[in-house]
Amino acid sequence: ETRSLALLRDVDARTRDGENISLQANLELPRDLVQAVAAGAQGVGLLRTEFMFMNREDLPAEDEQYDALRTIVEGMDGYTVTIRTLDVGGEKLASSLGDHVGTGVNPALGLRAIRLSLKEISLLETQLAAILRAGAHGQVRILLPMISSTNEVKEVKKILFSVAERLQAQGIRIADPLPPVGAMIEIPGAALAADALAQVVDFFAIGTNDLTMYTLAIDRSEEQVAHLYNPLHPAVLRLIQFSVGAALRARIPVSVCGEMAGDPRFTALLLGLGVRDLSMSATGLPRVKKRVLKIDMRAASHRAMAIMDQHDSGRISALLDDFNESH
Ligand code: PEP
Ligand code: MG
């Protein structure tokens, strides 16, 4: 099976009825590049930059961040690299950030991700400078984690423009034009306001891990309620469906980059809901590609509509598994 998966690398991810699906990789550090390229990833749909801040006592300087990002951008050889700004807090801790994160009353609902970046603006400025400089060496996009409102996007854009101006005034080469700016859709409120958010961003990346957790109020890492964590809950599926619809209506790209995207069990459902870009760990990519090759898009859309009519996640599971077995 390893061999047949390796042969898949250069095969396009196209459905039986000829729709092209873009399969991209989720990356943490430059060392993950080799695997992403080997799996045939057509870009990086999610670079989790917080890993550059974890397991160390000091903060990475702009040059260090730039070097790491440039390595990834060049390694992807013309494919787009979607760089997410720092997403620490909640379950993701970084001792280099000291007491800033993970100490609140409820860290999952506290100072984390974009909220931290907008409070510690110099952190964000440094990161944006590194991203803009790396963007001079290939295609990059900027992705903002835990966005809950259009105001956060506008604030980040202001800071992005001022950083870009400063770098240009210093004669430093940066991405030209400026990279697209997108929002993670992973807070239920962001999904419900996706039509408003689509007016201020250039793309969406749906994070089904946090979206499931916050929608169902189930901690991703709490064993006692782990059995209730279910992305097939109708509420989660409706939020995904609405977000995808809002993106399509606003004509902006939308991808899914949570664990759901890397699990072939969900591929037909996500495609049926209108998703054409999936980003996942490189190890899962060949299996998802195999699944895409077997799917008929019209049948998948049809089944997705039937699933969206259901109220019960058990029934949803059954409809999905039945489709997967027969298609
Ligand atoms: C998500 O929440 O689905 C996601 C992709 O982001 P992370 O897993 O890094 O929180
Ligand atoms: Mg997340």
UniProtKB/TrEMBL annotation:
The keyword Amino-acid biosynthesis does not apply. Its cofactor is Mg(2+). The chain holds residues 274 to 600 of 600 of the full protein. General (non sugar-specific) component of the phosphoenolpyruvate-dependent sugar phosphotransferase system (sugar PTS). This major carbohydrate active-transport system catalyzes the phosphorylation of incoming sugar substrates concomitantly with their translocation across the cell membrane. Enzyme I transfers the phosphoryl group from phosphoenolpyruvate (PEP) to the phosphoryl carrier protein (HPr). Its EC number is 2.7.3.9. One of its GO terms (molecular function) is metal ion binding. Phosphoenolpyruvate binds at R48, R84, N209, D210, R220. It comes from the Bacteria. It catalyses: L-histidyl-[protein] + phosphoenolpyruvate = N(pros)-phospho-L-histidyl-[protein] + pyruvate. Mg(2+) binds at E186, D210. This is Phosphoenolpyruvate-protein phosphotransferase. It comes from Denitrobaculum tricleocarpae.
